[in-house]
Amino acid sequence: MLRTRFAPSPTGYMHIGNLRTALYGYLLARRHEGAFVLRIEDTDQARLVEGAVKVIFDTLRTAGISHDEGPDVGGEYGPYVQSERKEIYLSHANELISQGKAYRCFCGKERLDTLVDKRGIAKYDKHCLGIKPEESKRKADAGEPYVIRQLIPDGETSFQDIVYGEIKVSHSDLDDMILIKSDGMPTYNFANVVDDHLMGITHVVRGNEYLSSTPKYNLLYEAFGWELPTYIHLPLINNESGEKLSKRHGDASFEDLLKEGYLPEAVVNYIALLGWSPKSDREIYSLEELCQVFDLDGLNKSPSIFDKVKLAWMNGEYFKKMDPGKFYELAEETLKNSVKAPQVDLKKVAAMVQTRINFLHEIPPIVDFIDNIPEFPPDLVVHKKMKTDIPISLENLKNAYASLETLKDYSDAAVHLRLFSLIAELGVKNSQVLWPVRTALSGKPTSPCGGTELCALLGKDETLKRIQKSIEMLEKHVQSLAR
Catalytic residues, which ones? Predict the structure, then answer.
């Protein structure tokens, strides 16, 4: 069975790169009816952030990414949290010592700080490898602090990566990395290898920053006689300045994006396309659809650019396709804070704005005219593409007022029928009547709907009141021009 894992460190917020790693591992497992494992890698106790584990759970749950095996936020974290598995790692490290594939290092910080190779890079010089095994054990039993280091043999290591192809590395470029720290805790590098094997992980999905460490991991697999997993190293996600996404550069986390008004489904959809291309030009996918179409062939090794303009567009597409009832639930609070007019049906307002926004916070300036119509210049009642002028628009507005004044049914259909009957009677273009009516009702060059819909939305009294006010304003304007 194909088995993937997501192994985050609880050291703060969930950045976009981490979420993409989780998503790809999840999609790969679901596509092949495998298992997706969640593991908390908390070996670096000094960097732990209180509440960070909950952030991980909340993020995955909100994104719709469910794990088949792993800790439950409501109970004990158990065997899927590395700090609970300390003895397992120590046992495996001691096994390597007994085989001569690892050794204890008693060097202090002062000495280690002086060690650099010919390139000026910090690299351990295998000083403690020369200590005889019985002496090493005696020093350890006497309580001298030590770490356990992996012994890197001479030679060269090569491996295949799904994204980057064959990678070859000379062992002379590798350091004898620490497996067990002086406090008895394993390093991330060692714990993740042991856990991936013991948990049966067949496909390791992670960022390409781990490419350089993979040869060391492979030497550990070889030392234990374990089968290598399939490696899938993902390219960087950069911001629009070309820098790697990071909180330090002010780049948003998943949680930040939700606070900015992005929908979880839109963010997940967008992130899926950062480093992976489907076999069609289609861009909008539900999570369920992604599970069906995701494949490794679509992965690429070029860095992706996190484009918030594109994400905003995608957010708008999700609003457009959303069930009207669900959209109203999301928008209800914003609408109630934006529109106080008692006669207005907020569900109608929601239907009008649903296809016009990328974010809920864009609603207030679109609908603010409903409560308070703004002052507008007289020439706004003239449709720019029609051969008309203010006096003609004024006359058509008066005719519309007279026609709508006698109308009892103010449904959209009834208003539409009455105004189009008037247009036919006058023998004018549609916009010569509908444009000044819409302007008189909204006071804006654009509105979330046409004139007939606005009449139905505002109701008879408010409609006639606004048209009459516009007529009076236009009459004063025409009179001033005649002086």
Answer: 247
